[in-house]
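We modelled the chain as a single entity of 621 amino acids. Its sequence is:
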Amino acid sequence: MPDGAPLDPPADSPSYPEHWEADVVLRDGSTMRIRPIHPEDGDALQRFHARQSPESVYLRFFAPLTRLPERDLHRFTHVDHHERVALVVTWQEEIVAVGRFDQIGGGDAEVAFNVSDSAQGKGLGSVLLEHLAAAGRELGVRRFLADVLPQNARMLRVFTDAGYDVKQAYDDGIMAVSFTIRPTDRSLAVLAERERRAEALSMAAVLAPRRVLLVCAGDEGRAFGARLVDQLGGPERLRVVGLPGHPDTLAELEPREEEDLALLAADAPTVLDLIPALADHGIKAVVLYTGGFAVDPGTTKVAQRTLVTTLRRNGLRLVGPRSFGLLSAAADPVDATLWPGPLRPGTVGVFCQSAAAGLGLLSGAAERGLGISSFLSAGHRLDVSGNDTMQFWTSDEGTEVACLRLESIGNPRKFSRVARRLSEKGPVVAMIAGSTGQLNPPGHAVRTTAEPRRALDELMRQAGVLVADSEPALLDLAGLLAEQPLPTGDRVVVLTNSGTQAAILAELIQHHGLTSSIEPIALPAGSDGAAYADQVRDLTARSDWDAAVVGYVPLLTDDGAAVADQVRHLAAASGRTTLACLFGVTLLEGGPRAGPGPAGRAGQPRRSGRAGTAGADLPQR
């Protein structure tokens, strides 16, 4: 999850560690803010304490304590962020959890937690331990110590489940716990799995919503809203605010417990005003189609950091601003895209950033008949990113191929980690716009890098991502991987009626480390469907190839439909990977489908390439 805009540190705390602030996704998919404690947090900390049950107070302080004494309250909130560290988790400006450690010398520090009764079970203790350990390592702490009452099973479980080598000793009614905070393979695996599950669950409100609320205001917002109403169809899963014939304000609607997602189109100041009301309605995520937020907070426009801070205070996730919309992953999907035409359901998950990219991808997908499981355009990507979307796809059974069109990568290390895990589930293909992978379009805040493009290409290779060099190639590759069985070997046969095309494909096969076990078959230029049928019968009977590339160029007469029939027959009869590059044929409809291949997929190619492009992006083995 991208870092949100940090809150301004207290003016009298020059050593305030702003980099410890973070937005965190919890076990139930909700989001909260974690930050160092402020001296001004005294009243909020006292309110937090007052809300705790007597049992929770006793487990934390080993004594009944109805109110924090002023001396203790001052000590708890006035820390130096070095010898004494305290972090709080906040929800709508209220403290819901506190974690702290005090250094006691020799690299040791005493650690303690206190989680609100109302927030138990969300994994806040684990989140606090993770962030306290990171802060401790930064300050030279080597080991955490804690005294825990034996009946405090939740706290003991936080320590033992974290993946550290925990030692426990019982003495005089107290359980003494100690562990080094150096990361272990197990602790890193626990952290990554907790992150994956939490982020995937938080994305369920985005890509698998139960009910949707559409809210629009202003001329531009109502224009977006009118388009979306037509796209979304019936009212059974949709309520609308701000369009003719519908309520004018959110106050006129009763909250619905099952309403997850808000589609929002309005000017920037109105968006800020609507966010708290949306949270009160139980909304967990917002798709924002409009813009108007400034990257530079010094302008008169509403700053992006103000938008993010407002969202975090209310626990909402954001897709956008300037999103092209989304298509949810469900048996009855929510089509909240701005693409006006139908999209074929399928197994390819598509992610992009800008609205222009979204239009191009969905247009290309519709042209090819590419089957889409889900689609998301992150727009200016203030919150939800490609990493979040991939986390969702790791647990989405309906997505078998991940297709990413990227303009920049905000967190390369996390991208590599998440993409590597996703590529273990199924193919991940990506196209990176520009020459550096660090485009900075208007409205985006992108980290700059001095690393050459080859570093990004190597990152993709190590993560198991197949890289295409154009949008058409990206969609063609995604379609191939979604509709065809994976080859069982590296032997590729070429069948075409162009000698030049045969030579090009043979060279590409060699370049990608594949094998031409059969000499490329170049038929005469005037060959028709019957000539292809003869070769297809022969190839179907042979076992010395694993994948076929069939090309056709109508130089003298056009018999493309008959050649397309033969491509379908080759795929169906052989059950092996079959690529087609048939000039003038854009979609192979009807006809028999291949039986299940090695990956259990159908072997029929659904979309042909353009003349001269087949095989230009053969995946490397």
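As a brief sanity check on the tokenised model: The two ends are 32 Å apart (CA to CA). The first strand starts at residue 22 and ends at 25.
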